[in-house]
Amino acid sequence: MGGNVREGDETDFESLSNQLLSRRYFAGGGLAFGASAFVVGTLAPVSISAAGRFGFQPVKASTLDTITLPKGFRWSVVASWGDSLWSDGAQFDHQTRGTGASQERAIGDNNDGMAMFREGDRNILAVNNEYVNLKVFYGNRASRKPETADDLRKAKAAHGVSVFEIAQEGGTWSIVNDSPFNRRITADTPIEINGPARGHPLLRTTADPGGTNTKGTWNNCGNGRTPWGTYLACEENFNVYFASSDEAYPIPSALKRYGIKSKDKYGYGWAIGDERFDVSKHPNEPNRAGYVVEIDPLRPTSTPKKRTALGRFKHENAEVVIADSGRIVVYMGDDERGEFLYKFVSEERYVEGDDNSDLLDKGNLYVAKFADTLRGEWLALTPATTGMNSHAEICIHTRQAASAVGATTMDRPEWVAANPKKTEIYCALTNNRDRGKKPNKGGDATPVGGPNPRAENKFGQIVRWTPDGADHESTGFSWNLFVMAGNPTVHSDARAGSDNIDADNMFNSPDGITFGTNGLLWIRTDGNYRNRGDYAGMGNNQMLVGNPETGQIRRFMVGPKECEITGIAWSTDHKTLFVGIQHPGEKGGTSHFPDGGDSTPRSSIIAITRDDGGTIG
Ligand code: FEO
Ligand code: CA
Ligand code: CA
Ligand code: CA
């Protein structure tokens, strides 16, 4: 690793060493690692009494095909892929794994980000259905790929967003069949294009010559929730559904930056079954995906809107805060190796009770630049700073705009979370095997340093920052690392992780992060679950809780085999914590979560409660 490390950079060791506590770096890896690693550590001395804030005893790592929770907590399944939302729908069939028709009436696959909404005393959950695992989804087909037109219809219906009412009876939460709020949004649902890019020539297609109305949303990963009660679904790896029937078709460089290829890499087959996914025939179609989609979950007939002002990239989540001025600030990561961290600042101000429905249509985009001095700045993306022709173009070619201003290439920014107790924001940087080795897709270098301090980063880290003057609109900020994940039982250099990582709480690849109202950070992992080598002793993917004040991290939950832990949400009384269990048994065959026996593994949402009926987080 040493060969990739920058030495003798501009960071002043004297001033930084006071702020830092990571003995590992002073003792070992720090020598090889350079000054940037000194930012790791906790801000305050750890006090034993602070551990009481967690309210649970940590659980050990596990490789079991079930949910592991601390003593005093229990779980049950609320909803799984293929569960019908209407009484006229079919029950999930473990042999066929459903049809196009049954899937259109049922919860989609691979639940990810989610949020809870209330109407009177009714509870409405909005949940992203990110993608499908072909091996599981088409487990009834010898090829493990779509083989018929109905197979394609089924996949498009398993993507998008599921909105449904749930209710608690006898202590157990379940779906309210036929609720007027139940709704499926799929890869074929009509969606409006709003904001600066609406109608732009790059968004015009044969089917939509005005560039204002598109069809469907897919690969929705993390989410957001607005103060006015709407849901934000964030389009991430939208590119893999496109392919070209003409193999010789030269993919334009602007599409290459977003990973569009002529080959159907995973075998989704959408470009065969639905011509709009064929880029040689409809080269502007990919420009209509990669946005944040706003959905009103309490108005089931409302048309979802793509908010192009929030930029086009592989959106992870959208963390919405209200600045002191009343303007809306949305923090967003672009999850790809060496891509960027963004914020949007609305032009208009939020006024409670007023019509705020189009606040996300007008405003400015900024991208983060981090210095090794623990300072950073938000660089405005404007025609003047980027050399682009218009604001609309910046909203479509956002990655290229960020490259033009020299933003910091990051270790795959996943979720962003704002601390409810102070003006401080966190972002999970999940891992980056290319760090210090390969440029990003735009050719920008990915030097080791700043918040990305490890070459060929296998474990990931969480960066946090405080805007100057505790104002989300400030362009300056101070940053440090809350944690560097690692394995201290295998490594003694920087790969051991920061000081707040030990044999009992180690993990890799932080992904979803969300604050509870009590100011603790819930960290979910999407990492390597081989439990060998670098990852020995980490077990299955898991959820941990971090204390921002002390830096302590404690493992709360372990998921079943080959899963990822995704979105979380709370009941209004905070007595139930809902957690997303995505793609158990994703490699096919090893998991039967949650139904057991020989069943098909199904992505699910679980409800966690305390035996004593108390609140959680
Ligand atoms: Fe869908 Fe970046 O995770
Ligand atoms: Ca994720
Ligand atoms: Ca991830
Ligand atoms: Ca995933």
In short:
This protein has 617 residues and is mostly beta strands. Helices cover 10% and strands 28% of the residues.
What does this structure look like?
The chain is mainly beta. The protein has a single domain, classed as TolB, C-terminal domain (Neuraminidase, 6 Propeller). 10% of the residues lie in helices and 28% in strands. The protein is built from 11 helices and 28 strands. A 9-stranded antiparallel β-sheet has the order 13-14-15-16-17-21-20-19-18, with no helix packed on it. It has a 6-stranded mixed β-sheet with strand order 8-7-12-11-10-9, with no helix packed on it. Strands 2, 3, 4, 5 and 6 form a 5-stranded antiparallel β-sheet that branches. 56% of the residues are buried. It binds MU-OXO-diiron and calcium ion (3 copies).
CATH class: Mainly Beta
Helix content: under 10%
Q: Which strand-content bin applies to the residues?
A: 25-35%
Q: Number of domains in the coordinates?
A: 1
Indicate the structural class: mainly beta
Q: Give the integer mean of the pLDDT values.
A: 93
Strand order, main sheet: write it out.
Answer: 13-14-15-16-17-21-20-19-18
CATH fold type: Neuraminidase
* Principal-axes shape call: globular
Distance between the termini: 39 Å
Topology:
Blueprint: H1 13-17, H2 23-27, H3 29-33, E1 73-80, H4 100-104, E2 111-119, E3 122-129, H5 134-137, H6 149-158, E4 160-169, E5 172-175, E6 183-185, E7 190-194, E8 213-215, E9 220-225, E10 231-235, H7 253-256, H8 270-273, E11 292-295, E12 305-307, E13 319-322, E14 327-333, E15 341-349, E16 363-370, E17 375-380, H9 383-386, H10 391-396, H11 398-404, E18 413-418, E19 425-429, E20 461-467, E21 476-484, E22 510-515, E23 521-525, E24 542-546, E25 553-558, E26 564-570, E27 577-582, E28 604-610
The structure holds MU-OXO-diiron and calcium ion (3 copies).
